# Entry
Amino acid sequence: MPPQLAEHWADRDLYEHSHRAAYTGLASTVHTDVEGLADALYDRLLVPDGWLPYQDTEPTLRKLHDAGIKIAVVSNIGFDIRPHFAQWGLDGLVDAFALSYELGRTKPDPAIFLRACGMLGADPERTLMVGDTPADAGAVKAGCAALVLPSAEPGRTNGLGATLALTGCI
# Structure
């Protein structure tokens, strides 16, 4: 990490301006003849078309939702991902969003998981955090169970269906 970006990198999931500065600054370290490439790449990140949910996301969320299980998205992110979920048709399957840049906390801090539980009215000891990074295991310090799945290529499955067995939905 270039020294001039270190502070923005450390704060990238807490502040929108730091998120943009960190990622555009990092992309700008790659020398090209394409004017404005770093900003264009970042702008692509902000729109749903720049992302692909895991293939098993929709069917898993739908089964959990239909079973009456409340769902929160807990994300270390420096911008609003709700429009992404809306475009993918997933917003009606999610009851709450606990986004780091809005809450001032990042995973693995237990506070972000406790806030998500509070948003759902859920007892942490009866809550399962499902994620794909080691930081997601921080939910254990909040009293939640945690299932950390391997990340997968965009648009592929990554094992989210395992949550159905753990929650008694299959």
Observations:
- The radius of gyration is 17 Å.
